[in-house]
């Protein structure tokens, strides 16, 4: 009976929700965009062109690993996932037993390290669990746990991970192919402590304290000779030879008295600053240790001598007479240091995180270009020392107040040289969790638009607000901007096969405003095939010609035309229109005079790199406080409201401002009548617009339909305006003001009372006005405490109150072939659906994934999708007209998602030692040798070796001769394989020996021929002179 009475009061005869049953309301989570928790580490694979992102556990979600590919390709792995088969833990040892393990597991879990190894991903978390993830199947292949891991070293072409322990200083090996420590029990003790034992008396208390303080801080394999491992300890560094099973050299940095060192502190005494990082030169010619005092020490790894010592600011800081700082300085501790190189590994540079003074004005990464490395054999010691003074030094800037937590280089093609060969970009992770991308070495910012997955743009930088428009599919397919831009950073993977959503020919287009005043626009999809996955970008700061104090507070986009309006905190509104940039390729922006309250042409402020797309059109300087709401119609009108209480309507055909007035003047009659009823002790609250909508309908008392603009306020008023032709333009007239409770208006939805469709101001609806067509319409107004359905402008209509919770978002949604219903999101993280016009509750469901502090920022689309924030930088998209499966299809992304690995992409050959080094006596260790030295003779061949052997046999089978006979004799055993490898290497050595012998013989023969020629010439000269004397 209550529903029947509400229908009569609303003036709507038809049941617009008759075809919607209670079982149809059930939210399904389609997809999530963004990063659920704070990012803790990054890793890039240039072969497969994938980016791995690790996060930390927080109140918003567990620690995860996300692997991103091209466009929308992503797979997510939860650290709590069980391995696909049991794993073997390292054998018990004092190095693996720690009294603090229980406390560690009570700490928040986070990903500390990520690295790609072939088609595997290696991760280390804060609970010291080393895990191996199979990227092809998307499962955890193996895991093991250590005690206080300091660092992990891997190589893209090897099956081994080297784990350095912080408490004991030991180095353990882990077999990535077998998913367990090697059966041989291979591990390295603390070589630094062993050295101290040999040089110091045993049993002293000072020695015991020193031993307990020595741990591993850094590990890195030689870039060309995998038989050499550089181990950085807290007190020094060593180079260990796997083949010799011994330390080749020790490196300890000592600052003499009087030398400034890296920070200039404590000059009066000798110092031994601790090591924080140790890295190889790309060719292994030199090595570098970075120390806690800011010193960068370059070493000769052959004889262990110091070549040069410098800091980020000064050179020769280890010399008493060297250049000194005026006073001691506090420096930022060193983080990651990469020794980069170009395609020529001898042309190098250093990319340094840290080492700058804490009071440095422009912080960032330091790029120290060293240039081509001098030839070691022919260069003097002074030349080598001067080389490390560098050719130039550049700071890759970060935002003011930000601090670098880590970075990840993006090499052009090679995964070797520690991922630092020919880098084209760097992804910088800040301590806030934000990511910025810059070019290397210039440091120019790179926009993530169409370069990275949209989820990464949510932290690049953080998002301030979102809005959603429902755009016709045909229109969206044409909205592809043309911009001068390099190739995407991520190009790997293949999307899962999906079909386009049937029954609805519209797309939900999200507008995302970021902290740097950029707005990115893209199709979120319905977990279906996204035909146009490209993003559109606009730069509000450039349109304003002001790059400081620019913050977007309101967004609106027309569904059919794609026109965009963005309001700012300082009271400006920038309007964009799709078109061509007449100033493409050049910066034609020019200063414009202020025009408060008026419109200014800003078409000259288009981005030079943008050829076709959303171009700046006009600027409206409202200047009445922060813009609270904007609405853009499909028929050329823009409405703007500000927190200062002003409201304006703009006609884009002029363009011109056709109406502007303070809301106080519009609702003063209502306020006066309230005042006469009695005195209110509540303080006066400024009234301002909170919701605006355009529509075409017949207002109460009119005999015709017109374009209407409906404005809701924070105090529950709804003002209705008629927009009518007036000569060559239009004018706006106030039709009336209705009171809908006393709380903030959340949503206004014009509705066709006959069929339930939206009574939107579309081109077709406005064209029908010329023919005298009328639209019997009504308004569905939702405030924080009630729903009201009435005929504008002042009819009372029907209402229903929310008695238990405040409503944060609402929208009238359409269910194709079934009807129309109102969907709302409440502060208790529930969503509810109500029938129209009876306002009966169809159903309600909990949304536990939403962040309770941000339900007020939820957005509901016309198609029934709820966009809700699950954390500071992640949005969940839920379809309320689903099956009620909770996570629904989104949960399948971890199990049946996109394909990451392209098996046709293989690793390039690993760099190895040169022929000259080999001839000079350097012992080359191949991956096969390393497998034997670490894994032992009983280790079965790895999958990589089996595949390589199969490929070799396949190639040999097509050749013939003895190799074919050997292949046809049966499959080669493990022992036979090594025997053949040894014989082939010995045979190659004999070939080289024979070649050298032939070279010697040829050289000797050439020398003899030269001597004979010289003697003949001398004889001819002598005989010629004798003959001449007789003539």
How do the helices and strands line up, and which of them pair or pack?
Elements: H1 2-10, E1 26-34, E2 39-45, E3 50-55, E4 64-68, E5 74-78, H2 101-106, E6 111-117, E7 120-125, E8 129-134, E9 139-145, E10 149-154, E11 160-165, E12 171-175, E13 187-188, H3 191-199, H4 205-212, E14 216-221, E15 228-233, E16 237-241, E17 246-251, E18 275-280, E19 287-291, E20 296-299, E21 306-310, E22 337-341, E23 347-352, E24 364-372, H5 381-387, E25 392-397, E26 404-411, E27 423-430, E28 435-439, H6 454-457, E29 463-472, H7 473-478, E30 482-483, E31 506-514, E32 518-523, E33 536-539, H8 540-544, E34 552-557, E35 564-568, E36 572-580, E37 599-601, E38 610-621, E39 627-632, E40 637-642, E41 646-651, E42 656-662, H9 663-666, H10 668-677, E43 689-697, E44 706-713, E45 717-726, E46 729-739, E47 745-752, H11 763-770, E48 777-783, E49 786-790, E50 798-801, E51 807-815, E52 819-826, E53 830-835, E54 841-846, E55 859-860, E56 865-871, E57 874-879, E58 881-886, H12 893-896, H13 915-919, H14 927-935, H15 943-957, H16 962-968, H17 974-1030
Parallel strand pairs: 1-58
Antiparallel strand pairs: 1-57, 2-3, 3-4, 4-5, 6-7, 7-8, 8-9, 10-11, 11-12, 12-13, 14-15, 15-16, 16-17, 18-19, 19-20, 20-21, 22-23, 23-24, 24-25, 26-27, 27-28, 29-31, 30-38, 31-32, 32-33, 34-35, 35-36, 36-38, 37-38, 39-40, 40-41, 41-42, 43-44, 44-45, 45-46, 47-48, 48-49, 49-50, 51-52, 52-53, ...
């Amino acid at each position: 009976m209550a529903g029947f009475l509400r229908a009569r009061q609303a003036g709507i005869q038809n049941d617009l929700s008759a075809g919607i049953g209670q079982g149809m309301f059930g939210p399904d989570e389609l997809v999530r965009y963004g990063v659920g928790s704070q990012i803790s580490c990054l890793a890039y694979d240039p072969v497969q062109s994938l980016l791995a992102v690790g996060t930390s556990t927080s109140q918003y979600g567990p620690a995860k690993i996300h692997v991103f590919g091209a466009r929308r390709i992503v797979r997510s792995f939860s650290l709590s996932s069980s391995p696909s088969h049991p794993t073997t833990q390292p054998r018990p040892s004092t190095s693996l037993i720690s009294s603090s393990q229980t406390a560690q597991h009570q700490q928040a879990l986070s990903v500390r390290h990520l690295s790609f190894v072939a088609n595997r991903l290696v991760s280390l978390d804060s609970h010291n669990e080393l895990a191996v993830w199979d990227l092809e199947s998307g499962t955890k292949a193996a895991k093991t746990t250590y005690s206080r891991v300091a660092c992990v070293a891997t190589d893209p072409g090897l099956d081994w991970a080297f784990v350095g322990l912080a408490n004991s200083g030991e180095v353990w090996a882990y077999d990535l192919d077998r998913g367990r420590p090697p059966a041989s029990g291979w591990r390295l003790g603390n070589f630094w402590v062993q050295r101290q034992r040999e040089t110091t008396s045993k049993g002293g208390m000072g020695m015991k304290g020193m031993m307990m303080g020595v741990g591993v801080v850094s590990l890195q394999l030689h870039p060309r000779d995998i038989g050499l491992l550089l181990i950085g300890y807290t007190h020094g560094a060593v180079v260990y030879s796997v083949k010799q099973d011994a330390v080749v050299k020790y490196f300890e940095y000592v600052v003499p008295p009087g030398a400034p060192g890296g920070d200039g502190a404590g000059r009066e005494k000798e110092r031994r600053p601790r090591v924080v990082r140790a890295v190889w030169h790309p060719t292994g010619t030199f090595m570098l240790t970075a120390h806690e005092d800011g010193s960068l020490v370059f070493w000769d790894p052959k004889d262990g001598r110091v070549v040069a010592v410098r800091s980020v600011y000064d050179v020769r800081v280890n010399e008493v007479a060297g250049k000194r700082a005026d006073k001691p300085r506090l420096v930022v501790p060193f983080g990651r240091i990469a020794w980069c190189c170009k395609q020529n590994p001898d042309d190098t540079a250093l990319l340094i995180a840290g080492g700058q003074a804490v009071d440095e004005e422009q912080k960032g990464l330091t790029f120290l270009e060293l240039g081509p490395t001098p030839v070691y054999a022919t260069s003097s010691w002074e030349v080598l020392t001067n080389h490390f003074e560098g050719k130039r030094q550049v700071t890759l800037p970060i935002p003011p107040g930000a601090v670098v937590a880590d970075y990840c280089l993006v090499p052009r093609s090679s995964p070797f040289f520690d991922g630092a060969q020919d880098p084209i970009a760097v992804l910088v992770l800040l301590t806030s969790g934000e990511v910025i991308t810059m070019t290397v070495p210039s440091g120019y910012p790179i926009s993530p638009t169409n370069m990275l997955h949209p989820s990464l743009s949510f932290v690049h930088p953080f998002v301030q607000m979102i809005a959603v428009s429902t755009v016709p599919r045909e229109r969206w397919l044409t909205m592809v901007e043309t911009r001068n831009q390099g190739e995407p950073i991520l190009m790997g993977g293949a999307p899962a096969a999906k079909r386009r959503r049937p029954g609805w020919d519209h797309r939900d287009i999200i507008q995302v405003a970021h902290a740097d005043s950029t707005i990115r626009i893209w199709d979120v999809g319905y977990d279906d095939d996204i035909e146009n996955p490209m993003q559109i970008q606009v730069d509000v700061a450039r349109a304003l010609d002001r790059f400081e104090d620019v913050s977007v507070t309101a967004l609106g986009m027309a569904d059919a035309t794609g026109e965009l309006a963005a309001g700012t905190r300082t009271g400006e509104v920038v309007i964009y229109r799709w078109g061509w940039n007449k100033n493409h390729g050049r910066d034609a922006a020019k200063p414009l005079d202020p025009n408060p309250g008026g419109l200014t042409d800003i078409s000259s402020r288009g981005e030079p790199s943008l050829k076709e797309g959303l171009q700046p059109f006009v600027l409206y300087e409202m200047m009445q406080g922060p813009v609270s709401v904007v609405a853009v119609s499909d028929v050329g009108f823009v409405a703007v409201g500000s927190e200062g209480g002003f409201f304006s309507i703009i006609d884009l055909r002029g363009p011109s401002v056709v109406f502007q007035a303070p809301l106080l003047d519009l609702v003063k009659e209502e306020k006066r009548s309230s005042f006469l009823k009695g005195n209110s002790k509540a303080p006066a609250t400024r009234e301002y617009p909170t919701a605006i909508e355009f529509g075409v309908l017949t207002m109460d008392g009119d005999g015709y339909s017109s374009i209407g603009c409906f404005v809701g306020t924070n105090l529950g008023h709804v003002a209705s305006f008629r927009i009518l032709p007036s000569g060559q333009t239009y004018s706006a007239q106030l039709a009336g003001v209705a009171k809908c409770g006393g709380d903030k208006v959340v949503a206004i939805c014009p509705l066709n009372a006959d069929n339930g469709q939206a009574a939107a101001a579309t081109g077709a609806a406005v064209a029908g006005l010329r023919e005298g067509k009328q639209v019997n319409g009504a308004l569905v107004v939702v405030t924080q405490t009630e729903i009201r359905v009435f005929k504008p402008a002042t009819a009372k209509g029907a209402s229903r109150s929310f008695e238990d919770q405040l409503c944060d978002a609402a929208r009238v949604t359409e269910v194709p072939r079934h009807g129309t219903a109102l969907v709302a999101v409440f502060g208790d993280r529930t969503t509810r659906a109500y029938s129209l016009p009876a306002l009966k509750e169809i159903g309600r469901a909990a949304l536990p994934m939403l962040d309770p502090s941000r339900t007020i920022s939820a957005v509901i689309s016309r198609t029934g999708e709820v966009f809700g924030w699950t954390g500071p930088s992640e949005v969940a998209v839920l379809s309320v007209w689903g099956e009620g499966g909770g996570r629904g299809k989104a949960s399948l992304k971890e199990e049946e998602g996109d394909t990451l690995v392209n098996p046709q992409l293989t690793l390039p050959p690993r760099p190895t030692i040169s022929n000259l080094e080999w001839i000079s006596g350097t012992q080359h260790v191949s991956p096969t040798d390393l497998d034997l030295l670490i894994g032992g003779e009983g280790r079965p061949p790895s999958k990589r070796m089996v595949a390589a052997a199969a490929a070799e046999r396949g190639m040999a089978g097509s050749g013939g001769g003895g190799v074919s006979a050997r292949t046809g004799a049966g499959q080669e055993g493990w022992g036979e394989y090594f025997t053949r490898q040894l014989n082939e290497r010995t045979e190659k050595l004999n070939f080289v020996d024979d070649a050298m012998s032939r070279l010697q013989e040829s050289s000797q023969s050439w020398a003899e021929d030269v001597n004979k020629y010289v003697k003949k010439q001398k004889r001819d000269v002598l005989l010629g002179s004798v003959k001449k004397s007789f003539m």
